[in-house]
Write a structure and sequence with these properties.
Blueprint lengths: L2 E12 L10 E17 L4 E5 L4 E6 L2 E6 L2 H22 L4 E8 L9 H16 L6 H16 L5 H8 L2 E5 L3 E4 L8 E5 L6 H14 L1 H24 L2 H18 L4 H12 L4 E5 L6 E5 L2 H13 L3 E5 L7 E2 L3
Parallel strand pairs: 3-6
Antiparallel strand pairs: 1-2, 1-13, 2-6, 2-7, 3-4, 4-5, 7-8, 9-11, 9-12, 10-11
This protein binds (3R)-3-hydroxy-3-methyl-5-(phosphonooxy)pentanoic acid.
């Protein structure tokens, strides 16, 4: 008798890093989802379990008791979800005990927005269970709060895309604007398996920018032009142009020093297999690359990235943001 909600993962199609300095970026929700199941408990405690992370524990009046996994890790990783649950309980003006089980098909810590997808799904599941009128705006705000606990000062892109789905144009000063994309975007996502730190990569770009302000400024300008052209290509269903723009965008990211050997290896494999466009996605320094290809080439690109050692899968854009699953 619980409620299950789900929310999608994301890839950054264009504009990562440059977005930190006010330039626009394009993010896409993909058909890999995180699921959260919420049910009422007899007592007043909150029990949280993450199947993927193999972590579980009870939150009870400020105390944490681990049930599964390393106690410190469990507390740190489950804390943002506890915060999301508490925000919904405040809205419901209720103090009930809950069991929350999360389960995700999104690779974790790979720049695909898995933590935000989980937080959105938890907020929506608890809201529906307690009959709270939750707008998507509410879900977004709660997931954003959870992300702040997890990541310090995130831009808000991940909770926005996992809540609203589709394709979003994001810019720091103007926020999110949906882009009307009718075309299918066949993607191969390749995970290098190399752990990366968004913080470290962002700091790297900052010091390069401090050293070469004029040069980086003109790269910023180019990145903006790429995004503006990409919006047109997305609206017009022009996959070929989109691919070319991705490859140019990757060259800029390479120039910023955020690609690495593991990414270049997978990127070259995808390129050789006939992808229309290839780039790293997210912070770089490991993590994931993405390739787009015509449908008849997609499997070939997938196999090439896998053969090169990537943990790769095919993904497609999804318009569906957070949703309650049928019971
Ligand atoms: O690693 P991800 O997917 O969370 O992406 C980070 C994107 C950056 O532009 C590098 C940083 C940011 O906060 O926008």
């Amino acid at each position: 008798m619980g409620v299950v909600a789900s929310a999608p993962a994301k890839v950054i199609l264009f504009g990562e890093h440059f977005v930190v300095y006010g330039e626009p970026a394009i993010v896409l929700a993909i058909d890999k989802r995180a699921y959260a199941k919420a049910e009422i408990r007899e007592d007043k405690r909150l029990f949280l379990r993450s199947q993927n992370l193999n972590l579980a524990g009870f939150f009870d009046n400020g105390n944490f008791k681990v049930e599964e996994g390393n106690p410190k890790e469990a507390r740190i990783k489950l804390e943002p979800l506890k915060c999301a649950v508490e925000k919904v309980l405040e809205m419901a003006k209720e103090k009930v005990g809950l069991n929350i089980e999360v389960n995700s098909t999104v690779p974790v810590a790979a720049g695909l927005g898995s933590s935000a997808a989980v937080a959105s799904a938890v907020a929506a599941a608890v809201g529906a269970l307690l009959n709270v009128k939750m707008s998507r705006e509410n879900v977004f705000r709660i997931a954003f709060e959870a992300e702040k606990i997890m990541h310090g000062t995130p831009s808000g892109v991940d909770p926005a895309i996992s809540t609203f789905g589709g394709t979003l144009l994001f810019q720091m000063d103007t926020g999110f604007k949906p882009i009307d994309v009718k075309m299918d975007i066949p993607l191969v996502i390749g995970n290098t398996g190399v752990e990366r730190s968004t913080r470290v990569q962002v700091a790297k770009v900052r010091s390069l920018r401090d050293k070469y302000p004029q040069i980086i400024e003109s790269m910023m300008h180019t990145a903006r032009e790429i995004v503006l052209r990409a919006v047109e290509a997305l609206k017009g269903g022009d996959l070929e142009t989109l691919g070319e723009l991705m490859t140019i965008n990757h060259a800029l990211l390479y120039g910023l020093g955020v690609s690495d050997e593991s990414l270049e290896w997978l990127i070259n494999a995808a390129r050789k297999a006939g992808a229309l466009g290839v780039k790293l996605t997210g912070a770089g320094g490991g993590g994931c690359m993405i390739a787009i290809a015509n449908t008849d080439r997609l499997e070939k690109v997938l196999e090439a990235v896998q053969r090169a050692g990537g943990n790769a899968f095919i993904a497609r854009k999804t318009d569906e943001g957070v949703r309650i699953e049928p019971s």
